[in-house]
Amino acid sequence: MNKNQIEGSVKDVAGKVQQKVGKITGNSNQQVKGAVRQVEGKVQKGVGDVEQAVHDSAKTTGDKR
After folding, report:
1. Number of independent structural domains in the chain
2. Half-sphere exposure of 29 toward its Cβ, with a 13 Å CA cutoff?
3. What domain range is 21 assigned to?
4. Count of CB atoms within 10 A of residue 41's CB?
5. What backbone phi and psi angles, to 5 degrees, belong to 26?
6. pTM of the predicted model, to two decimals?
7. Half-sphere exposure of 63 (CA within 13 A, CB side)
8. 44 neighbors 11 (Cβ within 8 angstroms)
9. DSSP codes, 20-44
10. What is the mean pLDDT of each run of 10 residues along the chain (65 residues)?
11. Whole-angstrom Cα distance, residue 32 to residue 40?
12. Are the beta carbons of 40 and 15 closer than 8 angstroms?
């Protein structure tokens, strides 16, 4: 795992918590902020996944030479 995968996962979970708290307290602003945070986290994790795939591919290609 790389930094973006970890940070993205953390943001996703934090966003879920924030969204749930907003729902429980009736605070729609917090719900929206939580949803946005989740999306940011998913995007960041996706970037990390791509970085990892490129790294793994380069590592595998380098091993075969």
Report:
1. 1
2. 0
3. 3-64
4. 20
5. 75, 20
6. 0.86
7. 6
8. yes
9. HHHHHHT-HHHHHHHHHHHHHHHHH
10. 97 98 98 98 98 93 64
11. 12
12. yes
Q: Which two tokens stand for residue 39?
A: 């999306």
Structure tokens at 8: 């993205």
User: Cα separations (Å) of 59 from 2, 24, 36, 50, 62?
Assistant: 15, 47, 34, 14, 5
Instruction: Mark residue 2 as left, alpha or beta (left: phi above 0; alpha: psi -120 to 50; beta: remaining).
Output: beta
Share of the chain above pLDDT 90, in %: 89
34 neighbors 21 (Cβ within 8 angstroms)? yes
